[in-house]
């Protein structure tokens, strides 16, 4: 049972970062970084998934306006992300994660799409104990990062913007990174999107559950 759900504004220098909390009184937490659409049902489903794995969840509202774009508004959502948010938002999230570390034994970062790339950029920070990224296509622009925590990266076979296989060798050279490719397209894990694949979604969930057990055994 959820014991507390709320949204609060954290002042961080010149920025304000909105974080929606879903607490069950756990000793471990997950920070969920959404896609360009905001905290939609897909992201809420992830919060519920982690709740059932025994995690308090913190969903980051990147826009700070609690606005959710529909999938038909993808162009507007992308433009807003690039102009108002950007991939450098990880710096503010890192400040919050460091504060959370005082209250939890383990903190996992989860990101999907652009959220996965932001999460990847957080892995150089020792305040997180693990990172999970779903189809973070822009990770290809940050391959110089060497994570200090265990990472699970799950990609689809097909991405419009690049050849997935082209980055696997580089990622495979990193000691703490596990990389998997599953059948399907960008969005395979989202049951509300047009590219959903139940088979690949379930395969990914199995990988995530196994990865969480590894984190807990550290």
Element layout with pairings:
Elements: E1 4-12, E2 15-23, E3 28-33, H1 41-52, E4 56-61, H2 74-85, H3 90-100, E5 106-112, H4 114-121, E6 130-134, E7 150-158, H5 168-172, E8 177-185, H6 198-216
Parallel strand pairs: 3-4, 3-5, 5-6, 6-7, 7-8
Antiparallel strand pairs: 1-2, 2-4
Short description:
The protein is of the alpha/beta class and 218 residues long. The protein has six helices and eight strands.
State the end-to-end CA separation.
27 Å
What's the β-strand tally? 8
User: What fraction, in percent, of the residue positions are helical?
Assistant: 25-40%
Number of helical stretches of at least 4 residues:
6
Order of helices and strands: EEEHEHHEHEEHEH
* Global shape: globular
Q: How is the quaternary structure best described?
A: single chain
Structural class: alpha/beta
């Amino acid at each position: 049972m959820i014991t507390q759900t709320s949204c609060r504004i954290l002042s961080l220098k010149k920025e304000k970062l909105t974080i929606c909390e879903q607490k069950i009184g756990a000793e471990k937490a997950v920070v969920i970084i959404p896609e360009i659409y905001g905290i939609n049902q897909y992201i809420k489903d992830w919060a519920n998934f982690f709740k059932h794995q025994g995690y308090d969840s913190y969903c980051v509202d990147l826009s700070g306006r609690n606005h959710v774009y529909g999938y038909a508004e993808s162009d507007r959502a992308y433009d807003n992300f690039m102009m108002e948010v950007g991939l450098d938002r990880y710096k503010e999230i890192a400040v919050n994660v460091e504060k959370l570390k005082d209250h939890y034994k383990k903190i996992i970062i989860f990101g999907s799409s652009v959220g996965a790339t932001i999460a990847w950029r957080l892995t150089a920070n020792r305040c997180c104990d693990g990172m999970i990224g779903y189809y973070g296509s822009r990770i290809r622009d940050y391959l110089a990062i060497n994570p200090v925590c265990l990472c699970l990266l799950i990609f689809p076979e097909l991405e419009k913007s690049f050849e997935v296989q082209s980055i696997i060798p580089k990622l495979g050279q990193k000691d703490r990174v596990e990389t998997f490719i599953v059948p399907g397209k960008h969005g395979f894990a989202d049951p509300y999107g047009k590219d959903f694949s139940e088979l690949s979604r379930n395969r990914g969930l199995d990988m995530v559950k196994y990865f969480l057990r590894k984190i807990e055994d550290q």
